[in-house]
Amino acid sequence: MLSFSLEEIAAVTGGRLTDVPDPSARMTQGIVTDSREVAPGCLFVALAGERVDGHNFAARTIKDGAVAVLASRPVGVPAIVVDDTLKALAAIGRHALAELTDPVVVGLTGSAGKTSTKDLLAQVLPGLGPTSVTDRSFNGEIGMPITILRASRDTRYLVLEMGARGAGHIANLTTIARPQVGLVLNVGTAHVGEFGGKKAIADAKSELVAALTPDGLAVLNADDPLVAGMAARTTARVRTFGMGNYADVWADEVTLDEAGRPSFRLHLRGGDSHARVRMGLHGEHHVANALAAAAVATGLGMPLADVAEALSGARNLTTGRMEVLDRADGLRVVNDAFNANPDSMRVALKALAAMAGGHRTVAILGEMKELGPEAEAGHREVGKLAADSGVGLLVAVGGEHADVLATAAREQNPRLDVIRAADRDAVPAAVEGALTARDIVLVKGSHSTGLEATALLLAAGTVGDHD
């Protein structure tokens, strides 16, 4: 964790100290923007949102141990007052990055798989040197400076998720931390309603590789034409990954065990080099994530055998991402409820089917947000996918778009048992008496549906059991 004095932060941000008794007092525990996460020694950043203004919590954060508040106006407690808190955050991030000793910034983006791939890199790159990665999904203009501050001065590899909700967002993030490696996983349907189409999404994602210098490394998905086409947008060396030997890093002999965990042979172009990988993660989609991580690591000089060993030992680091929770009575809950779009729903349902092993599968699916005009079609598609996936019970959670999902599923398979729940709080009652201890239950929906809590509730208790 990097540490700076208040007077140093004021100088970096162009701010002024107000009500600060000791300008040499140090921020030792990074930055927080949520007053509930304040820890002694942190700097609290007061952001003014649509519904909540962080300035109103300034006094409480100091009482709870914050060393000062980064604010846009005096708040009656120790503060660094700046014109624009977001610009000040960016300045702090750039300053913190400059304090690291010879860091290699690995930026990654994509419509799906960012966090899972970041978690794999967190377990592979330490074989090359000290590694720090994005915490949770801190992948925007607020989260990136927070992540950089959490690095240590000897961090060699800094892995930063870069998310976007529109054109120019990733380009702006690369001005905070210019990447030496840019990884683009895919272009899908996440946030398609905000972008206006997949071509616009691709243009936004390509801002990452466009920011690379000629001595950098662009790692691109050869199986996604929109991503593969980004090679024309960069002057950096290009390295590809995919499911065939047309890519620089590829896999074959892919199999799944009885729990849906993939094994495969990992290949590297340039000879007969290959190594066997046996993953501990659930779902065939993790093969692509593993190939992406392998392409980055081998591109940075890590031997293929070492990469394969690290991938085989990798485990799930983030809750809500194909997190398998086994209940004492035998019920298995697959918590994949952190977020959802049609693409991630498809891979989750495929993973659920692979995990069945003779057990009945149950899909508790929440609405998908941020699809814009594509919302109705997207929910209809997922309803049909669920009906075709072999699930024995479908629970559709939410409002009108959950109705669309449920109706499409019934039309696709009139014999499918479909239950409606108005929201996450209605799920326990909806499934009461409908589940057995031999079931495997997938819980997935957009973050705003709150189904992560439902997954944990199902895993912790006996909700929904019948004899």
Which secondary structure elements does this structure contain, and how are they paired or packed?
Layout: E1 4-5, H1 6-13, E2 16-18, E3 26-27, E4 31-32, E5 43-45, H2 58-63, E6 68-71, E7 79-81, H3 85-98, E8 104-109, H4 114-124, E9 131-133, H5 143-149, E10 157-161, H6 169-176, E11 181-184, H7 192-195, H8 198-205, H9 207-210, E12 217-221, H10 225-228, E13 237-242, E14 249-256, E15 262-268, E16 274-278, H11 286-299, H12 304-313, E17 323-326, E18 332-335, H13 342-355, E19 361-366, H14 375-388, E20 393-397, H15 400-412, E21 417-421, H16 427-431, E22 440-444, H17 451-460
Helix pairs in contact: 3-5, 4-11, 11-12, 13-14, 14-15
Largest sheet: 9 strands, mixed
User: So what's the overall shape?
Assistant: globular
Which residues sit in consecutive blocks of at least 5 with pLDDT less than 50? none
Total strand segments? 22
What is the gyration radius calculated from CA atoms?
Answer: 23 Å
Helix content: 25-40%
Distance between the termini: 51 Å
- Strand residue percentage: 15-25%
Sheet with most strands: strand arrangement: 9-10-8-11-12-13-14-15-16
Overall average pLDDT: 93
Count helical runs.
17
Structural class: alpha/beta
